[in-house]
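Input record (Table S2, row 364):
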Amino acid sequence: MSFTVTATDGAARAGVLRTAHGDVPTPAFMPVGTKATVKTLDPDEVRAIGAHIVLGNTYHLYFRPGHELIAELGGLHRFMGWDGPILTDSGGYQVFSLRDTIAAVDDEGVTFRSVYDGAAARFTPELAAEIQAALGSDIAMCFDQVLPPELPRREHEEAVRRTTLWAARQKRAARAPGQLLFGIAQGGVDPELRRQSVEEISALDFDGNAIGGLSIGESREQMFELTAFACDLLPPEKPRYFMGIGDPQGILGAIERGVDMFDCVLPTRTARTGSALTSEGRINLRNARFARDQRPLEDDCPCPACSRFTRAYIRHLVNQAEVLGLRLLTLHNLRFLLDLTSRARTAIEGGRLSALKEDVSWVP
Ligand SMILES: [Zn+2]
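Output record (zinc ion complex):
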């Protein structure tokens, strides 16, 4: 088994996921390195702020620079200079969220136009497997059909059926040595379709299971309800991955309901808008009130931004579009979420997760 649960607190779990490039303590927040880089950071910096695993993206790496080139250069770990665990998303989310680039979806796969140059392309579960095998990620994801929650039920029924069909095909495809494969359950916000998808994907017996297609437009309440519902149906001995959640309350809420892994572009994207995640909430450094603010972004934060620089200085960097400003905000925002996740892990081990939640109730 590649996953061990080491402590529980209610539905929440702490555990260890073993991969070909090392162990990942869970709950785990995974910084997103879409194009083989966590934007603006050196891999040593990513490790130093407490990340154990990073994400890469099949869709983007397939088009630029190409999975075959990366394989020729020794695989994704060597290519990007990160020797820790890597999870690669399958490309399903990218293909289906860029809806106006889709030409046709059928049971074989999906035809679409590349977001890079508009050229026609086709993804199938077999190609998603081949790309991820070439990249050599530690965890590969199944190619799935993601739909916005508001689409009619019959479309979600089709997506669930196809997602299972594709998952079964991808499971038979070749993988990189030691590569784990996770299935993804869809089903929109319809509990019966969710149940069907979770049960069908679980039955295929992947190394782990992901909850996909949530946190993309439904209400918070609905999202948490469906997360709890899915976790309850998923096999307890396998890791559970909620795809695309990264705000502090969302992370804690998902952990509380039994999720082990999550990722989000929020901390890095927030940095690019000149904003920092702090215990006061999200602060935008462009605001004039920070011009003379001598405090760090967050008191007692050990990140490279907070240990040396003031809000006033980072505001100046942001206003001048200096690269250092972007780097410092990215380092701080990731550290903030990685610390929160690691505190959640310690709290679960001590049976104190609800106390931690109250402790950080100030975090919006
Ligand atoms: Zn900091």
